[in-house]
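DM between two lab members

TW: hey, do you still have the Serine hydrolase entry open?
JB: yeah, one sec
JB: this one, 352 aa:
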Amino acid sequence: MKTSSKLLAALLFISSFSFGQDISQKIDSIIHDNYKKNPEVGISVGFINNNKESYTSYGNLNAESPMKINENSIFEIASITKILTSNLVAQAVMDHKIKLDDYIDGFLPKEYILQENLKNKIRISDLASHQSGLPDIDFAKLIEQDPQQPVNSVTAQTLAAIINNCSELKDYGKYRYSTIGYTLLGQILEKVYGKSYDDIIRAGMIKPLHMRNTLTKDFNVKNRTTAHNPDGGIQEFFKWNITAPAGLVKSNATDMVTFLKAVLNKDTTVGKAAIITEKIVYKDEKKEMGLGLNIVTDEKNTIYMKSGDSMGQSSIICYNRNKKWGIIILLDQRNSKMRQDLLNKIYDTVLK
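TW: and the structure you got?
JB:
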């Protein structure tokens, strides 16, 4: 008995569609089980598989509101902002504004004066992969001074003092997570484009991808979730000010899936830039890094991921280019263990 090509194509489509539904249902089941065990933590998850989107969410916007969290609810994505910034850096490479192996000296604001032994030492790729060796802002001290808005007091003068007083790159070539590194990348972008970081991210990402709920300024919107510290207390959304390129952005599952869709499409500007960010620029016995991306490989897969934690919310984004899937997990409480455990379970039981 012969099967027509049209029938075969239809059967393959139905099989693929059913497989996609099955993955989405399994992810929802994992998220639902977690919510039943932790009803105090609201969650929103977006998933894309071969360009097909699905969403699941649980919890309320806040304790006083009957409104449920959904795929359009706004969260702090915190340090996931860094991969948006690194994508813009890669776009600047594509625009021939910079090269990844350029030294940062000629691109820094005039307030920064590198000491002699630091000149022609640090490359743009070093900043983007957290191996510059530069000292960072003292988060512990800032949190002690203002637990609600710890980075609000960081100014251009603060950063200039840190950079200008640095006489030795103690960890140069070694991985050490850096907020100041991504702040400098944002300032380098501002110099080469002659625009503010806010204008650059809007022109290079938010507007072309129609990410209408990705916010950089006014966060007082109706669909904003409430942030909670690990003890359940209410936490304000961060005002990052000058350190914006390291953690400012607020977004939702819908827009982050839109970003993932663009990343996985090699024909988009964001997708072409993402391929640049995926190249390994740092490697040791425990870690591989692209530009802002953690790279994890096993015998069958290479996945790219980035987490984000503010004082009141936790998030993680992950994608597999070859298998064409991506996922964003957003929590309305700072709980890095929960978001990592959820990703691990979803990956190990559904996506691997």
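TW: got it. The chain has one domain: 25-60+67-351. Residues 110 and 160 are 9 Å apart (CA to CA).
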